[in-house]
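ok so for the tutorial part 2 we go from a plain amino acid sequence to predicted structure tokens. step 1 is just haveing the sequence, like this:
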Amino acid sequence: MNSRTGSTERGAASQGKHWIPAAVACLSGCLLLAGIVLGLFHRGHRQGAAAGTESSARGSGSAQDELSIYSATRDTSTAAEQAPAGGASLSQGAGAASKQKELLARQQAAQQAAAEQAAREAAIAEKSRELEAKENQLEQDRLRVEADRQRAAREAESARVEAAQRLPKAVAYNGPSSGTIVWQGEVRGATLVTINGNVSNTGQVVSGGLPGVLVMVQPGDAKHVGVAGTPAPSNSFRRLTLRIQGNGVVQEVIRWAIP
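step 2 — the prediction. this is what the tokens look like for a chain of 259 residues:
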């Protein structure tokens, strides 16, 4: 009796343990079936509402459009919010690249402007150097001309002094104030005759002579006798050159007088 009772109790306990999982599985199946039924019901309800009346569909068109616009806007906002940060990074990268290109272009323009300015300054400096060189050359030429002029002036003064030193010292003249020179000799055509004091280079001085002071001379026969050189300080007023024309032996008279 007791063994039967224990067996019955163990069988009941065993059945109780197997019942709980079965109940959970059944409840899960019912919930799943209820969900499927509710989904089909809502789907059929939506299809019926869509096929109900065309006018009510048109009446609710604007509302549906607004709902669609709202949904699209919400989706777009959601997509924008959910977009990866890489898009913003790409946009920022593109902006940075554009700014870098613009900065590079500005730097290149500044460098080109600086190069052009440097070229202009170099050209101006070169012209300045050329002008300075020309001015220096002109100054050197002016100084050289001035030095030549001063040297020529010194040489002229020196020559004047030397000439004055070579001149014989003035001697008081106490002789006659006028006189004559008689020359005689043979000529052929035009002959130059030089009389130094009272001596002739050709022919002879018959009488008279130069006094050794400044005198004026006058040939007696101006038709055949001309004066080629008069007495001067360089020859101490002792030389007279005549040009005598004739053929054969002639005699000529030259008069002199102190001015």
